[in-house]
Amino acid sequence: MESLRQVMSTFATGVTVITVGGANPHGMTANAFCSVSLDPPLVLCCVSGTARLHKAVAAEGHFAVSVLCAEQEGAARYFADRSRPCGREQFAPVDWLPGPRTGAPLISDALAWLECEVTEEHVAGDHSIFVGRVLDAAPGTERTALLFHGGSFRGLADGSVTAARPDGTVSAG
Ligand SMILES: Cc1cc2nc3c(=O)[nH]c(=O)nc-3n(C[C@H](O)[C@H](O)[C@H](O)COP(=O)(O)OP(=O)(O)OC[C@H]3O[C@@H](n4cnc5c(N)ncnc54)[C@H](O)[C@@H]3O)c2cc1C
To answer: For atom 4 of ligand 1, which residue has the closest CA?
Structure first.
C-alpha cells in the first residue's frame, strides 16, 4: 500500500545494521528496530520474510545490532544493496569485530552495539518480528546519529536539544 509507505516515511528513525554470525555471517540495514522491555532486557527487529537475513536469524537464533552514526551512510547503503556478496566476504568493505557473546559482526565506529538471543519470532504479514533478549549492550562513538526520514538519509539539522527526564517529561536545554 503506497500511502502506508508514504505515511510511515514521515516517522523519523535511526538506522542500524543487523548482523548474524556463524559459518555464513550476514548483515542487513534495518530501521524497524526498537526497545521492548527493560526487565527483562528485550528489543525487537522486523525482518522481511524474503530477506536472506531472515533465514540467517532463524537458523542461528541470535542477532547483533550496530547503531549507525551520520558518517556511516555508506555502510547503510551497502548493507541494503542486494548485489553485495554473501558470507564473510560481505564484511570486507567495513571494519568490524566479532561480538563477544554471539560472534556476530559489530560494525566499528557505530554509536552503540547490542547482542541478542532470539526469544520469540512472530510472523506478521510479510515480515517477522524477532524479539531478542539482550546479552550485551555497549555504547560506542559519541558522534551524531544517522537518521532515515522521508525516504532519505539525514543528519541532525540544527543541533538544538530538548532533554528528556527519566520520567518521560521534557525540558528545553
Ligand atoms: C534505511 C533502510 C531501512 C531498512 N529497514 C529494513 C527493515 O527494518 N527490515 C527489513 O526487512 N528490511 C529493511 N530494509 C531493506 C533491507 O536492508 C534490504 O532489502 C536488504 O538488501 C536485505 O538484505 P538481505 O541480504 O537480508 O536480503 P536480500 O537477499 O538482499 O533480499 C532483499 C529483498 O530483495 C529481493 N530480491 C533478492 N534478489 C532479487 C532479485 N534478483 N530480483 C528481485 N528481487 C530480489 C528479496 O526477495 C527480498 O525481498 C531497509 C533498507 C533501508 C535503506
So the answer is: 30
Q: Are the beta carbons of 56 and 20 closer than 8 angstroms?
A: yes
pLDDT digits (tens, 9 = 90+) for 88-102: 999 999 999 999 999
pLDDT single digits (tens) 96-141? 999 999 999 999 999 999 999 999 999 999 999 999 999 999 999 8
**Atom number, ligand 1, closest to the C-alpha of residue 56:** 26
100, 113 contact by CB (below 8 A)? no
C-alpha cell at 63: 542477532
H or E element in which residue 78 lies: helix 73-78
Give the total residue count for the chain. 173
pTM, 2 dp: 0.93
| CATH homologous superfamily, domain 2-172 | Electron Transport, Fmn-binding Protein; Chain A (2.30.110.10)
